[in-house]
Amino acid sequence: MEKTRAVTARTSSESTRDIPEATVARLPVYLRALTTLADQGTGTCSSEELAVAAGVNSAKLRKDLSYLGSYGTRGVGYDVDYLRYQIAREIGVTQDWPVVIVGIGNLGQALANYSGFRSRGFRVVALLDADPARHDEVVAGIDVRPFDDLEQIVRDHDVAIGVIATPAVAAQDVADRMVACGITSILNFAPSVLAVPEQVDVRKVDLSIELQILAYHEQRKTQHAADPVEGASA
Amino acid sequence: MEKTRAVTARTSSESTRDIPEATVARLPVYLRALTTLADQGTGTCSSEELAVAAGVNSAKLRKDLSYLGSYGTRGVGYDVDYLRYQIAREIGVTQDWPVVIVGIGNLGQALANYSGFRSRGFRVVALLDADPARHDEVVAGIDVRPFDDLEQIVRDHDVAIGVIATPAVAAQDVADRMVACGITSILNFAPSVLAVPEQVDVRKVDLSIELQILAYHEQRKTQHAADPVEGASA
DNA sequence: TCCGTTTTGTTCTCCCGTTCACAAACTCCT
DNA sequence: AGGAGTTTGTGAACGGGAGAACAAAACGGA
Fold first, then answer.
1. Does residue B91 sit at the A interface (CB-CB below 8 Å)?
2. What are B56-92's pLDDT values in tens digits?
3. Is the pLDDT of residue A229 over 90?
4. pLDDT one-digit tens code per residue, A95-153
5. Upper half-sphere CA count for residue A62 (Cβ side, 13 Å)
6. How many Cα atoms occupy the beta-carbon half-sphere of A118 within 13 Å?
7. Alpha carbon separation from B155 to A79, B148, B161, B182 (Å, rounded)
8. Class of A14-91 per CATH?
9. 8 A C-beta contact, residue B145 and residue B128
10. What positions does the DNA-binding region cover (chains A, B) (predicted)?
């Protein structure tokens, strides 16, 4: 229902309307590819070049970009810097997003140290852990603080995005607390299904699931290799 | 073309034929949910219960399971242990998969220490790093070894799955070496697009991309909240 | 044994995403 | 200025997945 709302009417402030989810998921990939091209000194690129750099089909790339607007020039291609800015603006990474990370185990530390966040518009404003033994530590130049400080930190820094890197058993509690203090986007690394209100976005990253998917295909490959040619048994 | 091969003919050893990719990606989720249920002492569950535990629609769950075979009992539900075994077998995690991890930075260490691998049919047989300064270290009870040992380790342990946790610039080289010594499945944490031969599977996990997707939706939320009601400007 | 209840397995329809193919538009060269 | 060559933006066809809805099958009680 909500989906067809206002497709004909147009308000002033909208270049952005109704970008498909699949496209949104690829925009960061394009952004990265464009950054690489820019670093190489490329000023202009065709959809084909960018598609190769991003690892996708050029038709798909063009259609994706068309949802943002007409930022290319026919017969020429795309201006790398210009397109990069437009995509960054569309995603929202021209501004700085404050982020809190909860759970400073191995993964939490890796995340805290990950330079890819800072360079892409995210700033880790706090590391939280429930274990008092960790509250003395400094990870990635940031003090580890008690989990109970969450409310205050979220308020002080106007945090909207939280990262959960705790064990599975703690994840739901952490999510509840995050939601309670106004966080509306959660990146969950814990292997558990989170129950959150409708308006809260949750994305899940599960390291072992990815490996299991690979294992499935790997198993099929070796199976097939061992098989005689299909139908030879008849 | 290849896809429609032998859909009518049936060889002896196949319960498994043509499982949709979307389903494959969910099987590990079901597996985890079943393990949780089993730990709680649940012996039997309905598709509805399991669907809730896995965070999916029950119709979708039933359809997914139907690709594996008929492992439920109408009017009763699914036997938790039996279904769990069947899914594990289908994915291929009843056997043990030897895995090598290349790149022992923060992320590599987190991966090496991640208990979720071992408990799910994966065994880290080697940690490799190009930096000689790291070759004395022991991470997660495993010696860090020179990257050049890759060939020998892959041969000795019959490794089919490799994990790349290096910086982006090194990723393609590592992938090439992996492919050269017979690895056919790669899990790539480096933020770069890998070029590999057709028969090699690559899955990519990009931490910052997930955050950017959240940022996009977050931006829209706040934007909409600031907007007057659609059409009120006219 | 038979009927009502429960729950699976499957069919059917709809929608989203991908890809093809082409018209529109821009540049360059003559 | 005009035509040839390029490359974008998009309409249309196609394929696959999601969800609703139902028929088939198992159980339990009388």
1. yes
2. 999 999 999 999 999 999 999 999 999 999 999 999 9
3. no
4. 999 999 999 999 999 999 998 998 999 999 999 999 999 998 999 999 999 999 999 99
5. 12
6. 8
7. 47, 13, 12, 9
8. mainly alpha
9. yes
10. 29-68
Cβ proximity of B106 and B170 under 8 Å: no
Which residues in chain A (47-66) have CB-CB distances under 8 A to chain B? 53-55
* Strand pairing report for B185-188 and A161-164: unpaired
Q: Reading across the β-sheet that carries B138-139, which strands appear in turn?
A: B138-139, B142-146, B122-129, B97-102, B161-164, B185-188, B201-204
Residue B36 corresponds to which tokens in the numbers above?
Answer: 């949780």
Q: Is the CB of B58 under 7 A from strand C?
A: yes
Find out whether B127 and B167 touch, Cβ atoms under 8 Å: no
Annotated binding site of A for NAD(+): 103-108
- Residue with tokens 């939601």, as numbered in its chain: A179
d(CA B193, CA B195): 7
Residue B8 has pLDDT above 60, yes or no: no
pLDDT greater than 90 at residue B225: no
Q: What are the start and end residues of each CATH 3.40.50.720 domain in chain B?
A: 97-209
Cβ–Cβ contact B221 with A under 8 A: yes
Annotated binding-site residue? B72: no
pLDDT of the residue at A157:
98
Q: What CATH number belongs to B15-90?
A: 1.10.10.10
Strand D closer than 7 Å to the CB of B3? yes
